[in-house]
Amino acid sequence: MSAAKVDANVSEIPARIAELGQRVLDGGQVAREEALELFALEDSADIHTLLSWGNRIREHYKGNKIHLCSIVNAKAGACSENCSFCSQSAAYQTGSPRYSFVDPEPVAEAGEEANRNGVTAVGLVAAWRGLKEGPMLDEVCDRIREMKDQGQTRPDASLGLIESQEVANRLKEAGLECYGHNLESSERFFPEHCTTHTFEDRLRTIGFLKKAGIKICSGGIIGMGETREDRCDLAMSLREIGASVVPVNILNPIEGTPLAEQEPLPPLEILKTIACFRFILPRKEIMIAGGRTVNLRDLQCMVFQAGASALMVGNYLTTLNQPVEKDLQMLRDLGLDPDWTEFDPNDAGGCGCDEKESCAPTEVSETVMA
Ligand code: SF4
Q1: Higher pLDDT residue, 328 or 72?
Q2: Tally of domains within the chain
């Protein structure tokens, strides 16, 4: 009697995962409460079933193309903000390098290296609160133009908060196609890791960028002590803002920061989170970024089986990654093609549903900016 009950439960969960997975393959969406069912999975066999659906959804929408990104830190350390995971905040003693906005040469070198490695995009990253009109914006626009002239690698930027439409428009005029601005976590959890600016400030920046016609690269960091519900809500917010690229960072605790002693997430929990993101954001580039080497170790290659379609390669801002050659070999071994050169032409910057008209990017930005 009880054995029959166990068997029924055993088949119910894979059937439920399959039902939701098939709906996503057919162009439908999972609702928040349904996604929470997936985040709540505990049993290893169920999680592996979920991963295989994450893989199927990735293959369906992304084929075997893997988008590669790298970053160059154009201004390091001494940041006025207090993000508790970040070694570049002036609020913490971390021994992280500090330098002001770099000359053209290191940026040009990073662009050349990215070109050589077949990297799709190289992001110009600066540790400061944000970008205002003035000489610094002129310099940033110059670097973007120089990188654009340099070759096939697309120059992206991640330069913090933007407080006016004019700044976003100037970046667009300089040739910027995509701006990185993570939401970092759920709206509820955000004040737990940053009090110098708000979740709403980040949404407003994204609104300006979208109105300027710049694509959004926005994701977050998992493993900061947030709940599964927070992770689900982060993915839901990313769906709402119409992020085109969704970086998933996994906390790499840095000595000197408030999160230095944070317990790491188990690798299966990380892979499950990636698969849940793929269910919620089926058509987006889900990119595994900082913290993968230290947190996933030998399971790194499973991020693609979980549904990831993009990878941050080269060193991160303040921590080391495995060599690019090793990542390229990993992709070849998996039969994946590390040669993705354009944005998905079907991605209009909406939430990824089939209602493309009602998901126009400006509509989202106006809501955000209201
Ligand atoms: S995450 Fe960005 S804004 Fe926050 S402290 Fe680090 S560099 Fe500054």
Answers
A1: 328
A2: 1
Is 271 buried (19+), middle (13-18) or exposed (0-12) by CB count in 10 A? buried
From the CA of 128, give the closest atom in ligand 1: 8
Distance 62 CA to ligand 1 centre (A): 31
Dist. CA 215 → ligand 1 center (Å): 21
Sign (positive or negative) of CA dihedral 167, 216, 180, 338: negative
238/62 Cα distance (integer angstroms):
18
Mean pLDDT of 175-187: 94
Mean pLDDT of the chain: 85
| Residue 11 counted as domain residue | no
CA of 271 to the centre of ligand 1 (A): 26
| Average pLDDT of the residues in 360-364 | 36
What atom of ligand 1 comes closest to residue 87's alpha carbon? 6
Residue 23 lies in a domain: no
Which atom of ligand 1 lies at the shortest distance from residue 184's CA? Answer: 1
CA–CA separation, 95 and 87 (whole Å): 8
Q: Which atom of ligand 1 is nearest to the CA of 161?
A: 3
Residues with CB under 6 A from ligand 1: 79, 81, 83, 86, 88-89, 127, 160
CATH code at 221? 3.20.20.70
Minimal-distance CA residue to ligand 1 atom 5: 89
CA 129 to ligand 1: nearest atom: 3
239 domain residue, yes or no: yes
Residue of minimum CA distance from atom 4 in ligand 1 = 83
pLDDT single digits (tens) 311-354: 988 755 555 566 788 888 999 999 998 865 655 655 555 544 44
Residue 318: which domain range?
60-369
Concatenated DSSP letters of 38-106: HHT---HHHHHHHHHHHHHHHHHHHTTB-EEEEEEEEEBS-BS---TT-TTBTTS------B-SPPHHH
**138 assigned to some structural domain:** yes
Lowest mean pLDDT among 165-179, 180-194, 326-340: 326-340
